[in-house]
Fold:
Amino acid sequence: MRPARLSSRLSLSVAMMGMVLALFLSALAYLSLVQQLDRIAEQTLEEKLGQIRHGIADMGIRPELGDQAHNIRDLVRGHDNMSLTLYGPAPQFQQLLTVGNLSGNPPLDIRDASASMRLERWRSAEGKSFLTAYQLIQRSDGSQIRALLSLDRSADQALLGAYIESTLIALPLVLILIATGAWWIAQRGLSSLNQFRRVASLVSTQDLSHRISLNNLPLELKELANGINYMLHRLDSGVQQLSKFSDDLAHELRSPITNLIGKAQVTLSRERPPEEYKAVLENCTEELGRVTRIVSDMLFLAHVSHPAELTPFERVSLHEEAEKVADLFSLNAEEKDIRLRISGQASVCGDRLMIQRAISNLLSNAIRHTPAHSAIEIEISANNNNVTLAVSNPGAGIAAEHLPKLFERFYRVDRGRSRADGGTGLGLAIVRSIMGLHQGKVEVDSTIGGITIFRLCFQDTQPTPPTGKQ
Ligand SMILES: Nc1ncnc2c1ncn2[C@@H]1O[C@H](COP(=O)(O)OP(=O)(O)OP(=O)(O)O)[C@@H](O)[C@H]1O
Ligand SMILES: [Mg+2]
Structure:
């Protein structure tokens, strides 16, 4: 089945609501009209009966009405829809006067009349509606007269009938109008969504540059468009990073592999003495070591990116770990007559081996970039819940423009020199991933020709098991 269009659904819903509302309002208007007509009829009868009462009271002491009856007749005669009957005293209840000739007899007993006016609604055999007021009137001579005044309400009935008829004719027209209006409004409102459809059809992994224009968009859709634009922006930069990363990876692996092939081909081009083969093999082993390092660093980064596979966090003393790492690097440091100083105490919850790896990446960089005969400081400090391990070294420093990119994979300040030193440019990217895993961060401060400081900033809160990608 074809799914219904949103505009059709909207207009149908609005039309249904409109129908319920229109029916409700019509019923309300009908009821108040009925009530109003009833009130007018009752008032008319009450006024007229009041006049009749006056007339009868003024008639003197004779029980019969005599000549003065014409005054009472005149009160009713002008009204075609009224009839009056006056009855004499009990027990005969003789009809003294009848004015007007409305068909039908009210279903009431005139003996029930009392000093206060009573009302009776009734219908004649032909279906006509009547309202009858009856009352016991005390004359000044002490005799009693019963008055019965009826009002034919056919006109009111006709009015109500006409109202129902016109409502039944107007209602479908009003509903058609409401549904058409709702459909038009929905069409207009939804036309803005065309932009979304257009952009969605243009976006692909090759081209994520398209954005939804915010001009002429209603406020609610502007927020949605902003959200989608932001998502496209993040996807775009993610895809760009990924493609840059695979380019870099291919590039990084290509050079050592090309070197290896080149050396092997040159060596095999002619017979050589065994020492020369040995030297070439040693050289090749070094290149292969480099390839192995890139691959193992990449595997390590992938491992950090899947924290579900990591061991649970434990309490790690940063001082102890820094000392272990410093021991490992003591020979390299001695070679350049570099002193390693560790100060401060603090512990954090984390993965011991990961933290060791982060410290050793920073220390190996520091040793590589510190001039001979100087000192590298490792300072550990704790402030409230923030624990920091800072590795600072003197040296050439890093220019400000490189600082934001330093933690990207394969980024090196001096590409040629770094590669000659054996650097792959993955060390700081690994540090950033490790710190992300610990819900911390890594910061750098450096001045040209001055001190370079890398800080591992931990938040020493309860260990939370790592989840999601870093
Ligand atoms: N302490 C430091 N002083 C000066 N420059 C530094 C320091 N630490 C890092 N750098 C610069 O940052 C760049 C990136 O460092 P990173 O550790 O990511 O890569 P690498 O040391 O070149 O290679 P790897 O660590 O993978 O062997 C380095 O190439 C270097 O130029
Ligand atoms: Mg490094």
Notes: DSSP finds ten helices and twelve strands in the chain. Residues 463-470 have pLDDT under 50 and may be disordered. The CA atoms of residues 83 and 421 lie 124 Å apart.
